[in-house]
Amino acid sequence: MELETLIRAAQEQELPELVLKNGRIVNVFTGEILQGDVAITAGMIVGVGEDYHGRKEIDLENRYVAPGFINSHVHVESSMVTPEVYSMEELRQGTTTIITDPHEIANVGGEAALKDILRAAEASPVNYYVMLPSCVPATPFEHTGAELSAEKLLPFRDEPLVPGLGEMMNTVGVLGLDASVMEKLRGFYDRIIDGHAPMLSGKSLQAYICGGIDTDHESISYEEAVEKLRCGLHVLVREGSASRNLTAIIKGVVKNKIDTSRMAFCTDDKHLADIRKKGSIRHAVKKAITLGLPPVRAIQMATINAAMIYGLQHIGAVACRYRADLVILDDLDAVTIHEVYKDGVPVSSIRQPERIQYNEALLHTVNPAPLPADAFVIPEKESYSVIGIVREQIITEHLHMTHQEVMDGLKNGTVRKIAVIERHHAAGFHACAYAANYGLHHGAVATTVAHDSHNIIVIGDNDADMFKAVEELKAIQGGYTIIADGKVVGSLPLQLGGLMSLLSADAFIPQLDDIIQKAYDAGVDPDIDPFITLSFTALPVIPHLRITDCGLFDADTFRFIP
Amino acid sequence: MELETLIRAAQEQELPELVLKNGRIVNVFTGEILQGDVAITAGMIVGVGEDYHGRKEIDLENRYVAPGFINSHVHVESSMVTPEVYSMEELRQGTTTIITDPHEIANVGGEAALKDILRAAEASPVNYYVMLPSCVPATPFEHTGAELSAEKLLPFRDEPLVPGLGEMMNTVGVLGLDASVMEKLRGFYDRIIDGHAPMLSGKSLQAYICGGIDTDHESISYEEAVEKLRCGLHVLVREGSASRNLTAIIKGVVKNKIDTSRMAFCTDDKHLADIRKKGSIRHAVKKAITLGLPPVRAIQMATINAAMIYGLQHIGAVACRYRADLVILDDLDAVTIHEVYKDGVPVSSIRQPERIQYNEALLHTVNPAPLPADAFVIPEKESYSVIGIVREQIITEHLHMTHQEVMDGLKNGTVRKIAVIERHHAAGFHACAYAANYGLHHGAVATTVAHDSHNIIVIGDNDADMFKAVEELKAIQGGYTIIADGKVVGSLPLQLGGLMSLLSADAFIPQLDDIIQKAYDAGVDPDIDPFITLSFTALPVIPHLRITDCGLFDADTFRFIP
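The joint structure predicted for all components is written out below.
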């Protein structure tokens, strides 16, 4: 893009390539809505106002023109499709910029995965920014596919699509001055550093911020959000598939008339089907408006605010010198999308980009060591710590059950065996315990999506099907599987890192629906997401009882249970 | 400053060095005023809130705490003292950060001057940022001391105190795609580029912005300001000694309830005595509040907004991780300063920094070629174009006078000779013409401050005193002088580049007052600033008639008058 081209087109010395006529244009700078045309050349807006003429002209018939939306924090892996496919889904729903943290795939593939993601980002039809994962591995209590030290991250620091360092989940490490954490914070001190500080408050919160933290997306209440704002954090209001914090926060914002100029919207984790149904940021904007936030302020949060927070230039406004990333709306309050433009091109003309050539190693990441015959044998004890699965939650209960209670549970179907098996480097680590209240009449359910280290998690009522499940996941090189009586009931391959499907969205969504249905058919409790709930049972930083490839883990005391 | 030190102090694992107790703290993030303490260590705020304890504690007795003010655009040379001296004056009035454009000294000394200014910036007691002068020389119609091409500017681009490129005054060059202008714009496209677009509007304004312009400080009306805001420019509201635009703009802002989050305050040019009397940004904040802007919003404009516009980190808020640059106010509406802290140190404890060792060449910049005996002889003509000096303005009139009228004017004191003499490289250029309505009974007045090329300007009623004035300015190596009957009536040396005094503020201000009084005593019209008005008569970009070392110049047609 040549400056000269834009300056000439702005003066109509050469006619702009495209003029969108007669719009009601949301001005995110002044908070006004102004009648006018939008002139576009070389993918950039070169003029906004009255009486523009272009080589091509489209009459907007008084529709609203908003800047393309920005999803300020998202883990694309949660969609279980590749970045290329995910981008298109977001784009169709008006999101033209996403700020991602490839934390999951980095845990599997390390630097090689980062390189691939950056190539995918470049090839993406949206503006695809990549925050460098700060916590790989997330904890020292498990074995992961890779480790990203400061030394390994710093070479990516000045990549053009990298605004900074991804969410620093290790709050304990920051407050405790952990040397490797400090090294990362120092290395990115003058860049954006995303925070992750659920419930952190007062002096601890401010000490954490002193480490160089700029944002937080973990607030679940208005009070939590406003304290973080006051301390200088930019608050990313999260409305994802699992965590939905928008209502609580925006209600308080509206009631207390708090300044929103340092707030944005994000999804964190959102499923593809949910995006397809309602959109991601579009949905957040609409919901915020419903709660009483003036539409223009909701749009500011969804656009220019996010761009300012992350220092993204030429993004987030309908104004000259900004990218022609636009959402044309039929209705402002309902955020009904008429058309989306990316760099001046209507989304209907944008084809799904070809999948990039991923590093071959990333397609072969399921390498568990051969399991011994007693891998799922749990030594008999008087009583056991049992993982209690909780409906509609990712927290678990720490149950204490007698031997008899467990035996009864195994019989009546309330107790199952659960195991985690290291799967990255055939390192041979594995652990097995009891889990309650998952459901499942018979057989085994297993996944290679297992936050955050993504080992294999398998749950079942008999060892043979559990072995078979591990075998199947190795055979398909990652994904979901359901086994019964030694047979594969269903499998969903997620071959990219064992996390993402190589399918298109259209092919993937029915397959996902299908295997979820099969899990429910196999008896999984209908109030539990059969695979997502399972994949969080290995996350040692969420209360209360967890299992990693190193053993049963008390997430309250941060100790393994012998 | 070690991250570890801050994090420990924030948790009071080591007591903060200083705690300011019981303040009413302006929170620029949320727009609230909150009761609390401010804890400070290593010059940084490590905590804000209740119940902090420090090694030293000061009771604020419920006074207001605001962030230190930011002057978002200033030419320090206009103060006629060195950056070190200027900084202290600003600091005492609550300005802890200045964003400067050393355009004047760069016109004299080029890269060497830039290097010195950057060293002075580092030594300054305020946060002293330097925008690189984009227009040296300002026009091709005169001879200047130096030329700064893109090639010469780019090595300074990544200096830590350089946010970007200084005001691009060459709007014609931007719109006309001048190659050397384009090269500069391209070189700084991803950095901040200050604009200078008086009265530019509509498609021309947007074409100019397409060149990469981020700010403008030239708006003189609300309508002009709001159009620029709508186009995405950050508007710096100017309240200086000469140009005072705040009332017009802020009145409109208040009336129209326009969003101020992309606006800041600046002085552009402000005299030392004015700063000493009322402050710079402090004065702007106070005036804006008087006009009805809520105090917190005025303070946001004076602090965090400016920091965001220029991408300055850790500046502009009273919050952890920000520099402890604070203004303690007795009264919020009147902006009455009780104390100023810079990096946690009260200004009363900060000593005027030693003057840096300026490049010797910058102290010897007045090198006119020997003048021929007829240098001030104006060939007799039937009629003349005469520069009409206008009271209280820097614009001039283009008068047409007959020979007889000029002769009469010379006799009755309404007409004088005015000359500009190249003084940088003994290049030998000089021009002489007639000027009307300056006053001056007898003798000559001269200055080496002559925007923007800073040649010598001399005005007088006889050639001998004019020669003597040039001789005197060479002898003192720059400054102001008044001559009568071959004798020096008064001289004010401005030895740094012929623009700035090497004196302290206390020594300088009375000397300046003295020579201005002497000029009035010599008969200069009391409604004209004897030296400042004179120094603008050589600026070819201001209407209507000007004189440069190349000749009499019609600033309306951009042509020399033969």
